[in-house]
Design a protein that fits this description.
With 302 residues, this protein is mostly helical. It has helices spanning 13-16, 18-41, 45-71, 81-107, 117-144, 158-177, 187-212, 222-249, 268-293. It is flat.
Length: 302
Amino acid sequence: MMESTGGPYLNTAAVTSPVGIARLLQMTFGCTTFSLVAHQGGFSAAYGTFCMFVWTFCFAITVFILTCEFTHLHSCLTISWGNFTAAFAMLATLMSVTAAVIYPLYFVQLGCYPIGCEVRDFRIAASVFAGLLFVVYAAEVFLTRAKPGQVTSYMATVSGLLKIVQAFVACIIFGALVNDSQYSKYVAMQWCVAVYSFCFVVTVVVVAFSVTGKTALLWFPFERSVVVYTFGAVLLYMSAAVIWPVFCFDSKYGSPRRPGLCAKGKCPWDSQLVIAIFTYVNLLLYVVDLAYSQRIRFVSHL
């Protein structure tokens, strides 16, 4: 006769708690969304492929997380589980809201011609479920975020969640940079690219060390280094926020208005404008991050 030496093998709270219910809904809405698109809705080009990747990737990771928590397998992994789940929930929220905007924008139409009414209805339904998918991922972020005075993992804090947003915004900037932004035209613009790249890499490294739970193994104080880096990132982004608009939109170096002959989707001015806007967005995010990082203490093993 076998004798149990610990708790139950299955963690029912993983599917009955508010967070567990949110994850079950994420699986349901995610599977429904990409099934509708794959079955009849259809997708094409880079935008459609990106949306399908988002839905399938988020579905797969959510299934992995739910399975690990339900079976207690996450205790066998050599990562900081709390940091991993918090980071993924924030990333999935950003990715799903992007897909929820892109798919209906490029693939949904009110009329039936030329795709047919059935395809149109499938695309509308997929868009609705894509929006619901974003809502339940955002709900998980809301439920698992750090509360005042609560001991929790770093990635569940405002500062940790902002790290994911900063990296995501940097990816948007990189996407605009490679879309004929003419960043090699001036050395000053290349400096801005170096700023975006450096801050992105360091932010990803911070997230990686937090998720793997290896911060305690470093020979320098990780929490203080992160604060110093965030302050440096604020200064670097401030320089980019001044330099990029000057060399793109000042009449001496660029064009203050969009050229009339620029083709839609292939206009360097459009890419430069996107980069300028998201430079200010990331600057604001780093400033808020710096303010919140003064009020937290790192816990790497949760």
